[in-house]
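Usage

Read records sequentially. Each one opens with the input sequence:
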Amino acid sequence: MSRSLRVRVPATSANVGPGFDCMGVALDLWNEFSLSAAPGDGITVTVEGEGAGVIPLDASNIVVETLAGEWARMGRTDLLPGPGVGYALACHNRVPCGSGLGSSSTAILGGLLLARAWAENGFALDEAQGSILARAVEIEGHGDNVAPALLGGLIVVTNQDGDVLTDRLPIAPMRVAVCVPDFAFSTSQARAVLPKAYSRADAIYNIGRAMLVIEALRNHDDALLARAMGDRIHEPYRLPRIPGAAAARLAALDAGAIAVSLSGAGPGLLAFARAGHKAIGAAMVAAFGAAGLPARAWALDISSDGSSVF
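and closes with the structure output:
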């Protein structure tokens, strides 16, 4: 009998203004990865939706690389694709690549979850979340995308001596407008523009505002969210590198957004609002267009659900 598994992983927005590398939210936009036993040798990969024609279909595919790497780490070389061991991996992507919405994190978690669920009979995601998160953070380097993608909701996460400290914080329901311009701004480029050291004043600025942003989201306090959403760690260095981003932020605020931040490292923007999400998204699209960049917008709920395995 043929065997198959399916994993569903949400998009995320990391950093959330002042929460650099330690705060993120899950968004109601999903990538799905299906793994099936197949005749033949090795693994065949198909990609539908976002990234089709661009995402690799060979062993360099992030899902395949993570899947095989996890099986090797677990000592399950009998599962590795090769002579006499065949698989079909289908990627159904709705999260745009290189957008600041955690596309690569969905692929990493997809690979880890498929690897563990395939290898373990009676796999229970609730019981395995801690070890899977630790492994995902080890691969990704920081947890503000993979943690909300795995757990859902608003997550604060950090490392301590190799351990992952995380908490899922209860927040009021919230819908956001997300806008992604057609602009290549890789994570490595985004990291390279950051300074190697920060002043005490800048550190204090971000620490205080990160705590206030959490309280604002928890208590449905839009006035506090508008005042607290500021950053001195990454946005002053990244935003000017993205044509039209500063104008798009102002356009979103003028259209009724409560607060706007870079989504992850960019180039996407995340706008918090109670209403008028389509108009806010359109305003950001127009601002990027005026700077010569086509852009797309979505209105998305912050998802209380994280990853799931079927």
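Summary fields computed downstream for this record:
- Residues 23 and 302 are 14 Å apart (CA to CA).
- The chain has two domains: 4-170, 175-301.
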